[in-house]
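Researcher: Re-running this chain for the archive, since the previous output was lost when a drive failed. Same request as before.
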Amino acid sequence: MKATTMGNGQISRLSRPVKKKIVSAAKAAIANRKKMMKVPTVIHYHHSSGKGKNKKPKPKHVYFSGTLTDWRTVEMGVFMEKGGDVEYYAIVDTSPGRYWI
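Model: Regenerated structure tokens:
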């Protein structure tokens, strides 16, 4: 039996292709899992117009963006108007994970 030593470079040469294959297979599995699994995520914004001096006008359009939309803006729809209060909602299909808005 012949011993492989670090001095002749055999260990690093032999282990490189195996590590690359494992890493690329793991990355592909994670990417496929994220593509397949989608969760409907509800984004909510409540606008209160206030009273007296602090009265604010109702916005005509409300947008949001974040890592879940690749920082593209998405318009939110009006769900309910009651008095001076307005509820805006958007539903986005996302992969499980952490996101910034």
